[in-house]
Amino acid sequence: MVPLVAVGSAPLDLAALTTAVLTGSVPADAAAAQGTGDGAIASFAGLVRDHNLGRRVRFLEYEAYEPLAIRAMERIVEEARAAWPSARIGLHHRTGRLEIGEASIIIVAASAHRGDAFAACRYAIERVKQIVPIWKREHFEGGDVWLEGAVADPDDTAARQKAYKIACA
């Protein structure tokens, strides 16, 4: 069984996460809102790109404090559910060495309506960047550097509102 929230070193599987979101448990209010089935599925895959800040990237390494990362990701799912009650979200982040083109994060949102699915998906990635303790080390031609990770307090209302505003733009 594929968990809806996960952090680990295995390659990410968007199709498996999509299936998990679609077949997972549905809150009673979401089931009533969606009727006989979802009207939308939105997904996001963050890929390792070959350039950043004018440098040619060779590969990335991600590290996480997994128990806290999972808790923060579960919080994001709950926040999104509160904002878009018909939406269900799956969120996976990869750790370890990732090569150019590999997925570092995948998000799937299913909902009765496309607007809610898109917004919940966008909200999730914005909040991941704000509060999930995952750190990225970029290896580029000529060196490597740790890039700034999540710095917002999960209880910071202004940060949460900023993510919501971006999601609903």
Primary descriptors:
4-stranded mixed sheet, alpha+beta, 169 residues, Aldehyde Oxidoreductase, domain 3
Model description:
The protein has 169 residues and is an alpha+beta fold. It has one domain: Molybdopterin biosynthesis MoaE subunit (Aldehyde Oxidoreductase, domain 3). The protein is built from 5 helices and 9 strands. Strands 3, 4, 6, 8 and 9 form a 5-stranded antiparallel beta sheet that branches. A hairpin with a 2-residue loop joins strand 8 and strand 9. Helix 3 packs antiparallel against helix 4 and helix 4 packs antiparallel against helix 5. The termini are far apart. About 7% of the residues have low confidence.
In a few lines, what is going on in this structure?
This protein is an alpha+beta fold and 169 residues long. The protein has helices at 14-23, 28-34, 66-83, 114-131, 157-167; strands at 5-8, 40-47, 51-52, 55-64, 88-94, 96-99, 103-111, 134-140, 143-147. The protein contains five helices and nine strands.
Low-pLDDT residue intervals, each spanning 5 or more residues? 25-36
What portion of residues is helical? Answer: 25-40%
The residue-averaged pLDDT reads: 90
Distance from first to last alpha carbon:
35 Å
Sheet/helix structural class: alpha+beta
The CATH topology turns out to be Aldehyde Oxidoreductase, domain 3
How would you describe the shape?
globular
Give me the Rg, rounded: 16 Å
SSE sequence, one letter per element = EHHEEEHEEEHEEH
Q: So what's the CATH class? A: Alpha Beta
**Total DSSP helices:** 5
Largest sheet: 5 strands, antiparallel
